[in-house]
Design goal:
Number of helices: 15
Structural class: alpha/beta
Helix content: 25-40%
CATH topology of the largest domain: Aspartate Aminotransferase, domain 2
Strand content: 5-15%
Shape: globular
CATH architecture of the largest domain: 3-Layer(aba) Sandwich
Distance between the termini: 37 Å
Largest sheet: 8 strands, mixed
Bound molecules: pyridoxal-5'-phosphate
Strand order of the largest sheet: 5-12-11-10-9-6-8-7
Number of strands: 16
CATH superfamily of the largest domain: Type I PLP-dependent aspartate aminotransferase-like (Major domain)
Radius of gyration: 22 Å
């Protein structure tokens, strides 16, 4: 599958009517104070009891400023906040909601599971059905273990990899996110392979040092890591299309190169498909790019909006996991009936509705339109898009790894985000999060988004 990387052309369109623009902005100023008044009140109260007022840091809007918007409900592609403002949602709970909010089949399945009992702590038939559906979609999965989050899935997969190889070190890529486990909160290190340094307070340096950091799209940095630590590297873990430094696509040969290098060195290749699984295609990035990993981590979509993760892969590796093997991994709510029912219903709906081509077509129209709109305002951007995912990098130079992504102008993104928010478009509240479409987004949504984007780029231009 060819990745799409679009850059603005040099053409400049007609300037917006400045009188009209001034009027609209005055309206913005007048209404600014009461538009989010409920959210402001709720956030002030939340901060007294919840750390930073939120349960996951990026929700606090630190990267874009202003008050986080408190949501009341969602339906399809639309989100409604506590002030009654309506948004076209491109965040979609960070990925799970590929079918949009409150999809009828998913809601029905989860509700009826809850009515039958929220949790048993004993095996249920539906877990096997979901595992079978995962195996059918991703042929690299021979045995599966379910968890309650993507973080746990990655922790489990790497423990299995270490148990299987008898080695301790793991290679990751700067800019790739694999959840908040201690030894993976390591991102730093540019260019060549570097010894991991913790990216978070409270992570022991010695734990982080088992993680070697390489550069995305740079096989030389991986070869360097293997020539230095090859015999102690258990696995290379990678987002096959990176979606946590903004969307950064693998260049041709990168994933194939990782497959070759790991195989030649007796290390495992782990694909973190927590975002890309059932999003790049029904069979994930591994099907789209035709590269087969040894282990795969899943999450987000497979829980249909409920807490869920899974990892799996080759039988002989997964047999190292308890109760078959000595690598312990467990969870009170793992394979939770509501989450499993929602996930199963979501996968069935995806199979039935097969929305992938349509979503990808709309996302591509959006990407082209965003490039044109940015060019008209003379704002330099790099718009990356594949399948239903996209990112607008406010950057003059191409983005292919963390170093180049980090050069993007975060303030420009913040300005763009705020303008879009006021106009009823909810983007991820940070430059380095990937925006997504659901199967419910329509051409009318795209057109409305592009109209808003034209104004938003104009407001970014005024910053410069
Ligand atoms: C979201 C994400 C995770 C972590 O999943 P949680 O459910 O938030 O723990 C891991 N890897 C990738 C690639 C992700 O996008």
């Amino acid at each position: 599958m060819a990745g799409l990387v679009r850059r603005p052309g040099g053409s400049r369109g007609p300037a917006l009517d400045s009188g009209l623009r001034r009027n609209d902005e005055e309206k913005d100023c007048r209404t600014r104070d009461d538009r989010f008044s409920q959210s402001k009140k709720l956030f002030a109260r939340a901060q007294k009891s919840l750390v930073g007022g939120v349960n996951s840091p990026v929700r606090a809007f630190k990267a874009v400023g202003g008050t986080p918007v408190f949501m009341r409900s969602g339906k399809g592609a639309a989100l409604i906040d506590e002030d009654g403002n309506r948004y076209i949602d491109y965040c979609l709970s960070w990925g799970p909601l590929i079918l949009g909010h409150a999809h009828p089949a998913v809601t029905r399945a989860a509700s009826s599971a809850v009515r039958a009992g929220a949790s048993f702590g004993a095996p249920t038939q539906a877990e096997t059905l979901l595992a079978e559906a995962l195996k059918k979609a991703l042929p690299s999965l021979e045995l599966v273990r379910m968890t309650s989050s993507g973080t746990e899935a990655v922790m489990g997969a790497l423990r299995a990899a270490r148990a299987f190889t008898g080695r301790d070190r793991v290679v990751k890529f700067a800019g790739c996110y694999h959840g908040h486990a201690d030894n993976l909160l390591v991102a730093a290190g540019s260019g060549a392979a570097t010894l991991g340094k913790p990216d978070s307070d409270g992570v022991p340096r010695s734990w982080a040092e088992t993680t070697m950091v390489c550069s995305y799209n740079d096989l030389e940095s991986v070869r360097a890591a293997f020539s230095r630590w090859g015999k102690s590297i258990a696995a290379v873990i990678v987002e096959p299309a990176a979606a946590n430094m903004g969307l950064v696509l693998p260049e041709p040969g990168f994933l194939e190169g990782l497959r070759k290098i790991t195989r030649a060195n007796g290390a495992l290749l782990v694909f973190d498909e927590v975002i890309t699984g059932f999003r790049m295609s029904y069979g994930g990035a591994q099907t789209a790019y035709k590269v087969r990993p040894d282990l795969t981590c899943l999450g987000k979509i497979i829980g249909g909006g409920f807490p869920m993760g899974a990892y799996g892969g080759k039988r002989k590796i997964m047999e190292r996991v308890a109760p078959l093997g000595g690598a312990y991994q467990a969870g009170t709510l793992s394979g939770n009936p509501a989450a499993v029912a929602a996930g199963l219903a979501a996968l069935k709906a995806l199979k039935r509705e097969n929305p992938y081509a349509r979503m990808s077509g709309l996302a591509s129209e959006l990407a082209v339109g965003l490039c044109e709109a940015a060019a008209q305002s003379g704002v330099p951007v790099q718009v990356h898009q594949i399948a239903s995912m996209f990112t607008i990098f406010f950057s003059k130079t191409p983005v292919r790894d963390w170093d180049s992504a980090a050069k993007a102008d975060r303030q420009a993104y913040a300005r763009f985000f705020q303008s879009m928010l006021k106009q009823g478009v909810y983007l991820p509240p940070a430059q380095f999060e990937t925006a997504m479409l659901s199967s419910c987004h329509t051409r009318a949504d795209i057109e409305r988004t592009l109209r808003a984007a034209r104004r938003a780029f104009e407001s970014v231009k005024k910053m410069c």
